[in-house]
Design brief:
Largest sheet: none
Strand content: under 5%
Radius of gyration: 15 Å
Number of strands: 0
Order of helices and strands: HHHHHHH
Shape: globular
Oligomer: single chain
Number of helices: 7
Length: 157
């Protein structure tokens, strides 16, 4: 598969992406567990069909020590017994935040309250920001048909 275009070839998009990547970097420095951050990025990317982000974030998570079992079960987290209650709350928030355009009514009060039981305000803020940014990356990659499979751990960081 060949990409439709290289967003980094445009000076304007390269400049914009630099800021988006910096915003993402700031959020990843929060106290929100790194494993949770990767799990929600993977789940949102699965929903959006973003092969490039799935390639990147599964490899980054595995490199950081995430197990193959958990990575393989992200798509079916509701039925899987390998995720903590906090991770499940984050995955639910990621799904509802990603599916806003599906006329699903946005994030329910129940999903928000469940996430708030497990994460403090700083972590919730980071979680919301990470979900929003991965959705932006997913949409850009899907629109431009960025290929997957060749990502190397640390390549973009």
């Amino acid at each position: 598969m060949e990409a439709r275009l290289n967003p980094l070839a445009s000076p304007h998009m390269a400049k914009a992406l630099k800021h988006i990547v910096a915003a993402h970097g700031a959020l990843t420095e929060s106290t929100l567990p790194a494993a949770t951050q990767e799990l929600v990025k993977i789940r949102a990317s699965q929903i959006n069909g973003c092969a490039g982000c799935i390639d990147m974030h599964t490899k980054e998570a595995a490199y950081a020590g995430e197990t193959a079992l958990r990575l393989n079960l992200v798509a079916v987290w509701r039925e899987a017994t390998v995720f903590t209650e906090a991770e499940r709350a984050a995955l639910e928030l990621a799904e509802q935040g990603t599916r806003i355009a599906d006329a699903a009514g946005g994030v329910t009060d129940e999903a928000w309250a469940n996430a708030a039981k497990h994460y403090d305000e700083d972590e919730l803020t980071a979680l919301v920001g990470i979900i929003a940014l991965i959705n932006a990356f997913n949409r850009m990659n899907v629109m431009t048909q960025q290929p997957a499979g060749d990502y190397k751990v640390g390549q973009h960081g």
